[in-house]
Amino acid sequence: MTRRPWLGRSFATFVLAPFCVLMAFPFVWMLLTSLREQNTIFNGPFLPRSFTGAAYQEAWTSIEFPLHFWNSVWITSVTVAGVLVFATLSGYAFAKLDFPFRNTVFVLLLTTLMMPSTALIIPLYLELKSLGLLDTQTGLLVLYVSGSAPFAMFLMRAFFQTLPDELIEAARVDGGSEFTIFRRVILPLTRPGIATVVIFQFLSTWNEFLIANTVLRTTDSLPLQPVLFTLMGQYSTNWPALTAGLTLSVVPVVIVYVRMQRQFVAGMMLGAVKN
Length: 275
Known about the structure:
The protein is globular and about 70 Å long. It has helices spanning 4-34, 54-62, 65-96, 102-111, 121-131, 137-161, 165-173, 178-186, 191-206, 210-215, 224-229, 239-274. The protein has one domain (52-274): MetI-like fold (Orthogonal Bundle), CATH 1.10.3720.10. By secondary structure, the chain is an all-alpha fold. It comes from Kribbella turkmenica. It is a multi-pass membrane protein. InterPro entries: MetI-like (IPR000515), MetI-like_sf (IPR035906).
């Protein structure tokens, strides 16, 4: 009996170790490629004989990395904040409030998730053009927030449903308004759900390429990912500079996940217990 936990952990390690190596290999290759010389990309050893940071300097200056990095930070932050506002308010309403056609409206919002974003590019492009928002970051933010809010609302509704109704009833008896109950009683208890939405939304917005490259035509307004794509040439590619830019672009994603990892895991466990 005392040996079974040890055998179970050893078997789990044996099974998961190859998957961990497989998942980490692309990032390790990207990092090593950014630190090697151009003429040793495909004909040199996996571990470079000498390391150089020239690719990072080239990526920093050749594509105006700070400007587009700030564009990505600005667009992603506003998108995450907007999605959180809509998702938490609507998720609470669909989970805890009773109003006419609640389930019908909820189903209609969920149907928007069935359409792939690529099928909506042309209609959205024409709509932004008619509104005068084409080639503006405001128009891009409208598409990001409106396109991501239904899924985030679906997640937050599930988290709000895990909370007992007795908390809301007790707060109402004490004279709290509906918004006060939401802000002071319910919202602090859904931090794992908020962390889950933040991580998912940050990743999808930070790495989004197609819509941003379609809506924005002014180079100075572009976020980081479409600009990094310009480092790929038609006949040749500066792989050290490209991988250096990609490595730098990964840093904010790692920071956000590390900061919210504990609450994110708690949210996943809460969802598993709920199911």
